[in-house]
Amino acid sequence: MIATLFQVLGGLALFLLAMEMMTDGLKSAAGHHLRHMLGHWTKTPLRGLAAGFLITGIVQHSGAVTVATIGFVNAGLLTLAQSLGVIFGSNIGTTMTGWLVSLVGFGFKIEALALPLLAGGVGVKMISRNPRNRSLGQALAGFALFFLGLSILKSSLETLAGGLDSNVLIDAGYGLPTFVLIGFLATVLTQSSSASLAIVLTAAAGGLIPLNSAAAAVIGANLGSTSTAALSALKATANARRLAVGHILFNAVTGLIALLVLPIMLWVVALLADWLALDANVAVSLALFHTLFNVLGAFIMLPFTPQFARFLGRLFRSKEEDNAEPRFLDNTLVTTPELAIGAVDQEMKRLIGLTRGLLRVCLDREDLQPTQIRPK
Q1: DSSP letter for each residue of 38-105
Q2: Which residue has the higher pLDDT, 64 or 136?
Q3: In this structure, what DSSP letter does residue 94 have?
Q4: Phi then psi dihedrals of residue 43, to 5 deg
Q5: How far, in Å, are 276, 323, 330, 361, 366 from residue 358 at the CA level?
Q6: N or C: which terminal CB in the chain sees fewer CB atoms within 10 Å?
Q7: Which is more confidently placed, 250 or 227?
Q8: What was the pLDDT predicted at 189?
Q9: pLDDT at 107
Q10: Residue 342 has pLDDT above 70, yes or no
């Protein structure tokens, strides 16, 4: 039992190392293009969703995309509404890992693909003098290690399941919220929803947990993926913190909806798997479930992005932002020109007062730092 547990931990460690190598390699090889996509393909929430999905699918790390998006918001290069679209798309992009695990990881002998890929990736990294090719070699080696780690996880969890009473987890009556919590904690501890999904999919495929409990754990892993954004936004600007809260709320709402209608969703998943002629195994069903609830959540929320952005805009209000808002101007005054002119006069006086106060502070305090002036 102890040896099997160490095998599970070793497989997980190899999987996490592989994910880091893939992400770093692909970001280095295509970093400029990814930044261009994120900066220029997000003019509308729908285009932001497409960019978030595509970039996350490429780099296989939603946390990296979320942190990059927070950086763009921090710098003022993306509005809150645009960045929300990226977050919705990034959630859909995370489903690619589930499909890789379910279709490739359980379809054939993994080592037959992984070992040649590993040799090729390491060879390219060692021989090539071009930094971009070296990064691609690293990503290829990471991709191979991804499958080797998955192979170790798969065999060790199957061994673990064989050594346990079949009713230990299935009939213990833990309840779905417990599995949601397990999925959430696994993602928070590993800081990788992909690793959590791989564990859940392999455990379910090995018969360790039933389908509905595994689906609840997938929902928990999806919610746990927000921890990276929350940690990165702790000391960031107000807009970045709003985006982190938006990410958490979006994942929480979609996860809650999926949990409430879980039997219906699993029934729909079974119908879709049959219609698409996919292999009827637990891993494929879970990958399809993960995709379905993320896509549905994103397209339910997308039409309400402007309203969601306005709601988030009222959070974390700073004194500077309040000063920047008009105090006397109001759309209702447009129909009464005399009152409108008076309101404009009052607003101009307030603006002159703010400017005079700022100038006085700058002139009187020679040691005033630029960082103290800029927010005002």
Answers
A1: HHHS-SSHHHHHHHHHHHHHHHS-HHHHHHHHHHHHHTTSS-HHHHHHHHHHHHHHTHHHHHIIIIIT
A2: 136
A3: T
A4: -65, -25
A5: 65, 13, 26, 5, 13
A6: N
A7: 250
A8: 76
A9: 54
A10: yes
Any idea which residue has 């942190």 for tokens? Answer: 67
C-alpha span between 327 and 107 (Å, rounded): 64
Token pair, residue 83, equals 């960045």
Q: Shortest CA distance to 199 belongs to which of 175, 224, 177, 174?
A: 224
The pTM is what?
Answer: 0.66
Would you give the end-to-end CA distance of the chain in angstroms?
63
Cβ distance 176 to 182 under 8 Å?
no
Is the CB of residue 139 less than 8 Å from the CB of residue 25? yes
Place of tokens 């879970």: 286
Distance CA 230, CA 235 (A): 10
Query: Regarding predicted confidence, which is higher, 72 or 254?
Result: 254
Output the pLDDT for position 37: 64
The model's confidence at residue 371, banded by pLDDT at 50, 70 and 90, is low
Q: Which of 137, 144, 151 is nearest to 117 (CA)?
A: 144
Question: Using a CB cutoff of 8 Å and minimum separation of 24, what contacts does 206-209 make?
Answer: 206/154, 206/157, 206/158, 206/160, 206/161, 207/158, 207/161, 207/166, 208/157, 208/160, 208/161, 208/164, 208/169, 209/169, 209/170, 209/179
75: helix, strand or coil: coil
pLDDT tier, 335 (very low <50, low <70, confident <90, very high otherwise):
confident
